[in-house]
Specification:
- By secondary structure, the protein is mainly β.
- It has one domain.
- The chain is built from three helices and 13 strands; from the N terminus they run ββββαββααβββββββ.
- The strands form four sheets. The protein has a four-stranded antiparallel sheet with strand order 3-4-5-6. Strands 7-8-9-10 form a four-stranded antiparallel sheet, with no helix packed on it.
- Strand 12 and strand 13 form a beta hairpin.
- It is globular, with a radius of gyration of 16 Å.
């Protein structure tokens, strides 16, 4: 099975023109006018012939898409790299839920590896980068509903308890 590229449409409400941008916009930055997107083609859903999961920054003014990171680039920085790189789970992890910080200087997203055919999470963690794509790093293990609480803190519901606030080192 071949993978499909998702796309978004940018419509100009003044002149009624529209154009296509590769990727499905997940989050828009009001300040820098960039979007965030990911491609999620896990083996568990799409079969064996898939494109590796990637997180991307979309230049909406230019109609460009730039890969921020893919799973293979993430593995060395992740503390659960032994599980992520295990052949049993190869190509099953996905990037999800990208979000710009309130000041648009950083972004975070979730990496999730789920046991095939179940909802059991083997790995679910937050990763962080600067808005230009630099300084990519693992932050912490998360549960549900991770979000920015302000410019320096991420709020998450970890799997083991609810209500942690993690202060980021800027």
């Amino acid at each position: 099975m071949a993978w499909r590229t998702r796309h978004s449409i940018i419509a100009n409400i003044k002149d009624k023109s529209s154009r296509r941008v590769e990727g499905s916009i997940g989050m828009l930055s009001e300040a820098n006018r960039n979007g965030l997107t990911h491609n999620n083609y896990p083996v568990s859903k799409y079969g064996k012939k898939t494109k590796p999961s990637e997180m991307m920054i979309m230049g909406l003014a230019e109609g460009t898409t730039q890969t921020l990171i893919n799973v293979m680039e993430m593995i060395p920085m992740h503390p659960r790299r032994d599980i992520i790189s295990d052949p049993q789970w190869k190509d099953m992890g996905v990037f999800k839920h990208p979000k710009w910080s309130p000041h648009d200087k950083q972004l975070f997203w979730i990496y999730m590896l789920e046991m095939k055919g179940t909802h059991k999470k083997l790995v679910k963690s937050a990763l962080l980068a600067d808005s230009d794509g630099g300084n990519k790093r693992y932050i912490f293990k998360v549960g549900q509903y991770s979000m920015w609480s302000d410019n320096e803190n991420l709020l998450a519901n970890p799997a083991s308890f609810i209500g942690i606030i993690h202060r980021l080192r800027m």
